Amino acid sequence: MRYFVLLLLLVNASKSYAHEFTPTYPKLVPSYIAGVVVAKMDLLNKRKDIEYYELTVLDSNMSPVTFASSDAVVRLKYLEAKKVEIYIRNKDLKKARFICSTSKILDIPGLEPTVVSSKICSRIK
Question: What is the pLDDT of residue 105?
Fold first, then answer.
Protein backbone atom coordinates (compact mmCIF):
# COMPACT_ATOMS: atom_id res chain seq x y z
CA MET A 1 0.00 0.00 0.00
CA ARG A 2 2.88 2.37 0.77
CA TYR A 3 4.31 1.87 -2.71
CA PHE A 4 0.95 2.62 -4.28
CA VAL A 5 0.64 5.89 -2.36
CA LEU A 6 4.23 6.81 -3.25
CA LEU A 7 3.57 6.08 -6.91
CA LEU A 8 0.39 8.16 -6.81
CA LEU A 9 2.28 11.09 -5.30
CA LEU A 10 5.03 10.85 -7.91
CA VAL A 11 2.54 10.79 -10.77
CA ASN A 12 0.70 13.82 -9.42
CA ALA A 13 3.94 15.72 -8.76
CA SER A 14 5.10 15.56 -12.37
CA LYS A 15 2.95 17.60 -14.70
CA SER A 16 2.39 16.49 -18.24
CA TYR A 17 0.39 18.53 -20.69
CA ALA A 18 -1.14 17.30 -23.88
CA HIS A 19 -2.47 19.14 -26.86
CA GLU A 20 -6.14 19.59 -27.69
CA PHE A 21 -7.81 18.19 -30.80
CA THR A 22 -11.53 18.93 -31.03
CA PRO A 23 -14.35 18.13 -31.61
CA THR A 24 -14.40 14.69 -30.04
CA TYR A 25 -17.01 13.48 -32.52
CA PRO A 26 -16.45 15.44 -35.76
CA LYS A 27 -19.24 15.88 -38.28
CA LEU A 28 -18.40 14.90 -41.81
CA VAL A 29 -20.00 17.19 -44.36
CA PRO A 30 -19.82 17.13 -48.16
CA SER A 31 -16.89 19.16 -49.47
CA TYR A 32 -16.66 21.23 -52.61
CA ILE A 33 -15.01 18.18 -54.25
CA ALA A 34 -17.43 15.54 -55.57
CA GLY A 35 -17.17 12.21 -53.74
CA VAL A 36 -15.28 13.67 -50.78
CA VAL A 37 -16.35 14.68 -47.26
CA VAL A 38 -14.57 17.06 -44.90
CA ALA A 39 -14.14 17.24 -41.13
CA LYS A 40 -13.23 20.59 -39.60
CA MET A 41 -10.97 20.17 -36.58
CA ASP A 42 -9.35 22.54 -34.07
CA LEU A 43 -5.80 21.88 -32.89
CA LEU A 44 -4.29 23.67 -29.87
CA ASN A 45 -0.70 23.26 -28.69
CA LYS A 46 -0.47 23.22 -24.87
CA ARG A 47 3.09 21.91 -24.77
CA LYS A 48 6.16 24.15 -24.67
CA ASP A 49 8.46 21.33 -25.79
CA ILE A 50 6.53 20.36 -28.95
CA GLU A 51 5.90 22.37 -32.13
CA TYR A 52 4.86 19.76 -34.70
CA TYR A 53 1.77 17.55 -34.87
CA GLU A 54 1.08 14.80 -37.40
CA LEU A 55 -2.48 14.24 -38.63
CA THR A 56 -3.74 10.74 -39.45
CA VAL A 57 -7.00 8.96 -40.23
CA LEU A 58 -7.25 5.42 -38.85
CA ASP A 59 -9.58 2.44 -39.17
CA SER A 60 -10.91 0.29 -36.30
CA ASN A 61 -7.60 -1.66 -36.21
CA MET A 62 -5.65 1.61 -35.94
CA SER A 63 -4.31 1.16 -39.47
CA PRO A 64 -3.93 4.22 -41.71
CA VAL A 65 -6.70 5.27 -44.09
CA THR A 66 -6.04 7.51 -47.09
CA PHE A 67 -6.98 11.16 -46.51
CA ALA A 68 -5.97 14.63 -47.62
CA SER A 69 -5.24 17.84 -45.74
CA SER A 70 -3.42 21.06 -46.49
CA ASP A 71 -0.81 19.96 -43.93
CA ALA A 72 0.02 16.36 -42.99
CA VAL A 73 2.30 17.80 -40.30
CA VAL A 74 1.15 21.00 -38.60
CA ARG A 75 3.53 23.44 -36.92
CA LEU A 76 2.11 25.19 -33.87
CA LYS A 77 3.96 27.31 -31.34
CA TYR A 78 3.09 27.09 -27.64
CA LEU A 79 -0.59 28.06 -27.03
CA GLU A 80 -1.18 28.60 -30.75
CA ALA A 81 -4.37 27.21 -32.29
CA LYS A 82 -5.18 26.27 -35.86
CA LYS A 83 -8.22 25.03 -37.73
CA VAL A 84 -7.48 22.06 -39.98
CA GLU A 85 -9.64 20.38 -42.58
CA ILE A 86 -9.43 16.63 -43.13
CA TYR A 87 -10.73 15.35 -46.48
CA ILE A 88 -11.84 11.71 -46.78
CA ARG A 89 -13.08 10.01 -49.95
CA ASN A 90 -16.59 8.56 -49.79
CA LYS A 91 -15.21 5.13 -50.72
CA ASP A 92 -12.97 5.23 -47.60
CA LEU A 93 -15.75 6.32 -45.22
CA LYS A 94 -16.71 2.78 -44.22
CA LYS A 95 -13.13 2.12 -43.06
CA ALA A 96 -12.38 5.46 -41.40
CA ARG A 97 -13.09 5.44 -37.64
CA PHE A 98 -10.68 7.95 -36.08
CA ILE A 99 -9.05 11.27 -36.91
CA CYS A 100 -5.89 11.61 -34.83
CA SER A 101 -3.16 14.11 -34.05
CA THR A 102 0.19 12.97 -32.68
CA SER A 103 2.92 15.17 -31.26
CA LYS A 104 6.15 14.78 -33.20
CA ILE A 105 9.37 14.54 -31.21
CA LEU A 106 12.27 16.08 -33.10
CA ASP A 107 15.84 15.03 -32.46
CA ILE A 108 17.67 18.35 -32.49
CA PRO A 109 21.42 18.25 -31.83
CA GLY A 110 22.29 19.88 -28.51
CA LEU A 111 18.78 19.52 -27.09
CA GLU A 112 17.46 16.65 -25.03
CA PRO A 113 14.35 15.24 -26.74
CA THR A 114 11.13 15.06 -24.77
CA VAL A 115 10.22 11.60 -23.55
CA VAL A 116 6.44 11.75 -23.84
CA SER A 117 4.55 11.87 -27.12
CA SER A 118 0.82 12.51 -27.02
CA LYS A 119 -1.80 11.15 -29.40
CA ILE A 120 -5.40 12.31 -29.40
CA CYS A 121 -8.05 10.69 -31.56
CA SER A 122 -11.56 11.88 -32.38
CA ARG A 123 -14.06 9.19 -33.27
CA ILE A 124 -15.94 9.54 -36.54
CA LYS A 125 -19.65 8.91 -36.04
Answer: 80
